[in-house]
Prior knowledge:
By secondary structure, the chain is α/β, with parallel strands linked by helices. The chain has helices at residues 55-68, 84-93, 105-117, 199-206, 242-257, and strands spanning 4-15, 21-29, 43-48, 75-78, 98-100, 141-142, 151-158, 170-174, 188-195, 211-217, 223-228, 232-238, 261-267, 275-282. It folds into two domains: 4-121, 2-Layer Sandwich (Nucleotidyltransferase, domain 5); 141-282, no CATH class. The strands form three sheets. It has a five-stranded mixed β-sheet with strand order 3-2-1-4-5, with helices on both faces. A five-stranded mixed β-sheet has the order 7-9-13-14-8, with helices on one face. A four-stranded mixed β-sheet has the order 6-12-11-10. The two termini are 27 Å apart.
Amino acid sequence: MATIWELDFYSRPIVDEQGKKKWEVLICETPLNVSEPAESLFRYSQYCPSSTVNSLWLAGAIKDAIASAPKPPQKIRFFRRQMANMITKACQDLDVPAAASRRTLALSLWLEERMQSVYPAEEGYQAAANPSVQFVPETPVALPDALIGEKWAFVSLPAAAFDEMSEWDIGFGEAFGLEMTGLSPDAQIPGLIIFSSRANALAGWMSGLELAFLRYESNRSPMLVLDTGVNDRWILANLRDAATEAEAKRFEAAKQQAKQVHFLAIQSNPESESFAGFWLMRELNI
Length: 286
């Protein structure tokens, strides 16, 4: 299985002797399946003086992280678009692909933890809100005609059912340990299953999109939207009647109850016992 890292390089609420903000690189391993314990994931952190914030310093820090890690990464994800050029350049210098992505659950939880318990204990700490990334939602676009599913259905599974996910027959997909989210075993996880005669092609195409989350929207007309990358958006389904819109609203409410955890699955037909694709996701406020 590939090793993927998540990276953040940004200023922290700490100032040095000259009153300049300290920067920090955080690197952690992406959990890829439900059986991978969070405590086993690789982590690396290093402060950076504001005077040396550049791609050369960052490349050196990533190189140090690679030297101390059990396995080098095949890809590095990052969510801060304003740092895209610097992060991409640093990764290119090390021949590691960089991907703009909101699929950074482990990093987001770690950053939140450090904002609460690590930075306040540092000399020069100045209380401040965790700077978020402001996203201006793009207009969602239609899926390619060849990849539109014939049917779809809202479903739900108890969190405990995902304990056996590693035994499911899945072509493409990605997951994470639900213990990271604090959900109880009996919590209901909502999801959407897409049925398509081109299930493998659809799943293969989606596997390269950095899937972020599903969302019901009604700003323009009722629809189900799939967010990918840092700002790409796709229309999975237009909700053309009151009954299906009501189902979508219940799905969104169930997401709220499940701490924004949900899933997207792709199958060839409702009788299939395998999945062409299955992604566990969590909508993050980053």
